[in-house]
Amino acid sequence: MASAMVIVPTYNERANLPVLIAELMKQAGVRVLVVDDHSPDGTGEVADQLAREHSGRITVLHRTGRRGLGRSYIDGIKQVLAEPVDVLCQMDADLSHDPRHLPALIAATSAADVVIGSRYIAGGAIVNWPRRRRLLSRFANIYIRSVTRLSARDCTSGFRCWRRAALAALPLDTFFSDGYSFLVEMLFVAERRGCRVVEVPITFVERREGTSKVSRAVLLESAITPWRLVASPAAFRKAPHEPSR
Ligand SMILES: Nc1nc2c(ncn2[C@@H]2O[C@H](COP(=O)(O)OP(=O)(O)O)[C@@H](O)[C@H]2O)c(=O)[nH]1
Ligand SMILES: [Mg+2]
């Protein structure tokens, strides 16, 4: 199997992270980079302890600058690209993304540049989301897809696996999103650069511990991002070297 590194951004996830790591460590050939944003609840120390327990398979990146999901992913991706891994994965820490789906997502990278763990294709599902949150996510995807013409059904999923070359080709330093919109921006730029996107169904389970960090500011950024993307000429520039097919 291809060697895979899972990047897990954390902010106040001390109850969830040990459970997630225990599950991930059952997967052969999988390593983890935890990117902690100086969580006030001590998630960073929990991550360091887990790294000692699973020496060689877990690394922790402690961020100190401005907090943000997008910024965390950029720092994490750069660190992972310095290592010889074949597949880079993105996954939430709150147990919404079941590690048991990971082998199917990783396997699908053999015929795709980006594989999305998708709630909105046949076989996908959402468990324990209130009606309001379901509607918000559905609406967000319809809105994003109609403005950007992205082909994926689930453009906001944070459960993804990338073929190394496809991720390495993304001009991360030109990205403007610093929050959750980063996920949409990544997908947009990847599709514009000719990446093959494939969706694999997942069952998304709402967190039991901790709280969601989705705020009004996050929603506002998400409403503006699709328009910024379609208006940005840089996003349409093709890469000199397309990801290998
Ligand atoms: N490093 C970092 N991680 C974050 C930040 N905001 C959210 N996360 C993590 O991103 C993942 C998804 O966040 P969550 O609040 O569950 O979003 P939701 O599932 O859309 O409600 C979780 O692992 C969070 O801990 C942040 O500012 N920095
Ligand atoms: Mg969540």
H and E string = EHEHEHEHEEHEHHEEH
Largest sheet: 7 strands, mixed
Stretches where pLDDT falls below 50 for ≥5 residues?
Answer: none
Widest β-sheet, arrangement of strands: 3-2-1-4-7-5-8
Helical fraction: 25-40%
The total beta strand count reads 9
What is bound: which ligands? guanosine-5'-diphosphate, magnesium ion
What does this structure look like?
This protein has 245 residues and is α/β, with parallel strands linked by helices. Helix content is 37%, strand content 18%. The chain contains eight helices and nine strands. It has a seven-stranded mixed beta sheet, sandwiched between helices. Strands 6-9 form a two-stranded parallel ribbon. Helix 5 packs parallel to helix 8 and helix 7 packs parallel to helix 8. It is globular. 46% of the residues are buried. The structure holds guanosine-5'-diphosphate and magnesium ion. Guanosine-5'-diphosphate (GDP) binds next to strand 1 and helix 3.
